[in-house]
Amino acid sequence: MFEGFDAVVLARIQFAFTMSFHIVFPAFSIGLASYLAVLEALWLWTGREVFINLFNYWLKIFAIAFGMGVVSGIVMSYQFGTNWAVFSDKTGPVLGPLMAYEVLTAFFLEAGFLGVMLFGLKRVGPKLHFLATMMVATGTLISAFWILSANSWMQTPAGYAMNAAGQFIAADWFKLIFNPSFPYRLVHMVLAAYLTTAFVVGAVGAWHLLSDNAREGSRVMFSMAMWMAALVAPIQIFAGDQHGLNTLEYQPAKVMAMEGHFKSHPNGAPLILFGFPSMKDAEVKYSIEIPKASSLILKHDLNAPLAGLDTVPRENWPPVPIVFWSFRVMVGIGFAMLGIGALSLLMRWRGKLYDSPLLHRLAVLMGPAGFVAVLAGWITTETGRQPFTVYGLMRTAESASPLAAPAVATSLIAFIIVYFIVFTAGVIYMLRLMAEPPHHGEEGPRGDVPTHAGGIAPGIGMAASSGKG
Amino acid sequence: MNIVIDLPTVFAFVIAFAVFLYIVMDGFDLGLGMLFPFFPEKKDRDVMMNSVAPVWDGNETWLVLGGGALYAAFPLAYAILMPAIYTPIIAMLIGLVFRGIAFEFRWRSRRERNQWDVSFAAGSLIAALAQGIALGAILQGVTVTGRAYGGGWWDWLTPFSILTGLSVVAGYMLLGVTWLIMKTNGDLRERAYMLAWPLLVATLVAILAVSLATPFLDAEYARRWFAWPNIVLTAPVPVAVAGITFLLLRSIAKRQDYYPFPLTLVLFATSFGGLGVSIFPYIVPRSVTIWDAASPHDSLLFMIVGVAILVPIILAYTAWNYWVFRGKIDADSGYH
To answer: Which of A104, A425, A465 lies closest to B105 in CB terms?
Structure first.
């Protein structure tokens, strides 16, 4: 299947494959954990049954998504050592502590309270249970903080020095953690997770509204999701723009690839909407352009000069077509989300939020859009960092493990087979849960099985003897 | 007062602590999975899985800490060992994938004979075997060239690593069965007691075999265990194993539900200490010491602050989680 590839290319395919599968689950569970915390807070505050029904409904889906995030995440934590040993040796002193802190402050927090969140409502009572939900939601955000800091350092390294063994060592931890691209990336990613989740929730709500628009659960989740779309999509577009300006400052070659600017434009650069970038000929073929618009967006000046890839040595070019296209997919989806948000505001204003099959159909269609946008965004930023692992300092080709190609090819094939089995099943189970509308008296993940210790009553005298978790 | 604290040594113990907690905590989860074939009935399996469902994720996190801390504190060792035990590590990860997803998927499948039970049992077996093989592969030593692994991708496979692989399988199953004794009632517990006998014997045979084989791997191991004055320190290890075995046998015979599991933990701790005697202060046995591999002082200092503050907190809420789900699981309550 992979004869003729060298070990580095195979290791890159393996990392890209396992990472792409992994990233969609944290993106979903970061958003969903926060949504669950909001639902439980609203339930505690208002006492309305619809909120606890929605909480239990989404909790079952969260349990599956979180489980898949955990198992695919453990694979990631060992990918560095198995396939990128030289990278690990060189960056361990600076990136290792960030990941160790991610485990200590985030993974344990999530894992330690997940059991109570999933199965413990009747054992610990609503208040402690809400605390557990908050801890899990907080854990997902702390995890995003550390891993995006580490990723951002690879993009915009700062606060480091080199030692005699050729390792990166810390010179200033604050500068290292809060490296130049980190704040932008963190905001952009967390908002992306929230939007992704909002569009999944919105699609499920819309799907059930299409068959019966009187159900309270469907109405509440659809309304909440559309508020998120209307409010967060414009903020996200602004955050993305700011992130782009930051990239222009620190990783100009990536922006050149995103824009398809092979040539420098001393008198205002055009915005290339579409076209076919050719690395060989160093031009974008059949391009549709808006003159000077790129300079306007990136420099806020129609005639500002913009350098092109002709100022970058060819061996340092990222793969332009991938970056160019993935960027357009992400931006396109971002504006489609903005459109849905605007349409929902219009329908809400007209009092037709629950009576607009057009909006509901569009929302269903946009359900998976967030995942596609997240993947496209990650492909843009990670491929745009090439040919480096640590931008400008350590090349990808010099980062890999001293492994024979057959070893990497075998493990890659194994991961492909296993992931397709496992994730197909997971997605089917999640879709099956989503296909049922939330109903009165919705149960949590183990509504029908015992999780209760017979005989020993928990400290808080909740209705524990029913044994339902 | 000027106490010199050697941070690499501290971190060696931190990682050993994380690995030990992983071994015993995920050990009983994985052991439980491997016991599935002995408990074919759905209702028994429901109880077994529910006894660990609220805690397994936290248990597995110690493995992530072990790997993460190794990367952070001893990057050179991480960079050498991971390619050296490449295949067992990949197998372990895939085993853990199949095991982990079963916790939720099992309840979502509509089939009566559940394919995720197979996934759970087989995933647990693969993960346990791979961990044991990885341990053996490290113990027997790996080829190091410069700052990298210099061997082939099948070097890990030897009779010794197969022996350690099977030993870990036996030990985890013993942990799993004593956990069941502690957490269940009635017929399920009774069958767990019946299985505890052969599994205890298998574990003891495994400990004995690995202990006898290790000194033959390298003269250095033999010297550490048998030469004067080390023998003063090492001689009590087998004595302790014998003592724990006696207590274990007695508690199983007397049907003391809450004793076998903690005693098995002590048995694991003793064996783990024995491994420490063989390995320390090397981190890649006989080629790289913890001081060769350690991150710069600054990185270790930055992390030790977090470890010192956060690990006690983590242990506290982990204990709380176990406390919330304490006690025996009754198979008959909860069905409505």
So the answer is: A425
Say if B295 falls within a structural domain.
Answer: yes
pLDDT for position B112: 62
Q: Whole domain around residue B28: which residue ranges?
A: 10-324
The tally of domains found in chain B comes to 1
Residue of A84, A90, A108, A465 to mutate, testing the B interface (most B Cβ within 10 Å of its Cβ): A108
Q: Are A253 and A318 in contact (CB under 8 A)?
A: yes
As a 3-state breakdown, chain B gives helix, strand, coil percent values, each rounded to 5, of 75, 5, 20
Mean pLDDT per block of 10 residues along chain B (336 residues) reads 76 91 93 94 88 89 90 90 91 93 84 83 96 92 87 89 95 95 91 94 93 84 80 83 93 92 93 86 88 89 92 93 84 40
Residue A90 has pLDDT above 60, yes or no: yes
In this complex, which of A109, A115, A401 lies closest to B325 when CB atoms are compared?
A115
Q: Judge whether A359 and A343 are in contact, CB under 8 Å.
A: yes
A125 → chain B, closest CA residue: B324
Q: Determine whether the interchain pair A449/B334 forms a contact, defined as Cβ–Cβ distance below 8 Å.
A: yes
Both tokens assigned to B111 = 């089939």
* pLDDT: which is higher, A339 or A286: A339
Among A58, A433, A449, which would you mutate to test the B interface (most chain B Cβ atoms within 10 Å of its Cβ)?
A449
* Backbone dihedral angles phi then psi of residue A454, each to the nearest 5 degrees: -65, 140
| Residue A157: burial class (beta carbons within 10 Å; 0-12, 13-18, 19+) | buried
In whole angstroms, give the CA distance from residue A188 to residue A338. Answer: 15
> How do the domains of chain A map onto residue ranges?
1-179+404-469, 182-260+309-395
Residues 122-161 of A with CB under 8 A from B: 123-124
A465 touches chain B (CB under 8 A): yes
Closest Cβ–Cβ partner in A85, A124, A404 for B153: A404
Q: Is residue B320 part of a domain?
A: yes
